[in-house]
Amino acid sequence: MSINRNVLTLDEFTIQQLRMFPNATGELSALLRDIGLASKRINVEVSKAGLLDILGEAGTTNVQGEDVLKLDLYSNNQMMGVLRHGISCAGVASEEMDDIVVFDDEVSNNSKYVVMFDPLDGSGNFDINVSIGTIFGVYRRLSKPGTPCTKEDFLQPGVRLVAAGYVIYGSSTMLVYATRRGVNGFTLDTAIGEYCLSHPDIKCPRNGKIYSLNHGNFFQYSQGVRDYVTACQQKDKSTGGPYTERYVGSMVSDMHRNLIKGGIFMYPATVAKPEGKLRLMYECNPFSFIMEVAGGRATDGKNRILNIQPTELHQRSPLFIGSADMVKEAESFL
Ligand code: P6P
């Protein structure tokens, strides 16, 4: 079988990027490959979740107070395992764990990066076969190399992200990641077990015709949000409409569509959740970084998401994200 040299695998792509920066240490490339490996293992379990007795509550609840399903734990352990045994990561923070995990061994203490992740976002959907995903963000540590990483290494604003990405376990499994140099998408070729570059240099369309939010909360939203949603519903050809409403209820799915097709995704503050529902550090920040690199925009309604100085690992934020022109229009109503 001839190898199609035109299709770069994730490993080849990260090494190609590394060759462009001779003085780079290769730690970021290695870290991205580690995350790719973890996601391939997660993908195997996600793709057979309905077959194995892997569903069902693990009997514990996570820091969000949600019932933890076994696949969440498995995914969390896969991500933590590859990062702990790699050469690039000093420690991690996860939606599934109350506090940071410091790897505190000689190699890890000399590593440059810390990683925050949601190991399996939207996992409440996997028993109904809706796409779910892994979300991650990579920061350069602030603490002194050679020492264990600290919580301050994690509580950095999203503007200081070095890389961010997600894996969507959907009709195909894709890994999409951004560095400041661009956003690139890789589709898993299960025949060879490799992620292959399928979506080079992804750009988010400046405008779109899809708005995405949970209409069930409509009367809990602020008047400004309600006015914007009503305006979306009243768009006609003369005002760039008609718009379509799409809401999967799995952030990775809604955000992947947003990135590729354009549109706006919103999880505003509600009466029940005045800070919004989505987590700043491992949901809002990674997607905001990716979206901005791709030419999109992301705010909490007033402030650029990436400028928010975090105080807590699991803090929440309202989120308006997607095509730059659509987010700007939404902000004019808020
Ligand atoms: P709601 C999934 O639980 C999640 O964290 C995101 O993936 C998703 O965008 C959001 O919550 C859906 O929340 O309140 O609309 O069900």
Largest sheet: 8 strands, mixed
| Silhouette | globular
Helical percentage: 25-40%
The CATH topology assignment of the largest domain is Fructose-1,6-Bisphosphatase, Chain A, domain 1
How widely separated are the two ends? 57 Å
Ligand list: 6-O-phosphono-alpha-D-fructofuranose
Q: Judging by the overall fold, what is the CATH architecture of the largest domain?
A: 2-Layer Sandwich
Total tally of structural domains: 2
- CATH superfamily grouping of the largest domain: Fructose-1,6-Bisphosphatase, subunit A, domain 1
What's the helix count?
8
Description:
The protein has 334 residues and is of the alpha+beta class. The chain folds into two domains: 10-199, 2-Layer Sandwich (Fructose-1,6-Bisphosphatase, Chain A, domain 1), CATH 3.30.540.10; 210-333, D-Maltodextrin-Binding Protein, domain 2 (3-Layer(aba) Sandwich), CATH 3.40.190.80. The chain is 29% helix and 24% strand. The chain has eight helices and 15 strands. The strands form three sheets. It has an eight-stranded mixed beta sheet, sandwiched between helices. Helix 1 (10-20) packs antiparallel against helix 2 and helix 2 runs antiparallel to helix 3 (70-84). The radius of gyration is 20 Å and the shape is globular. The model has no long low-confidence stretch (mean pLDDT 92). The structure holds 6-O-phosphono-alpha-D-fructofuranose.
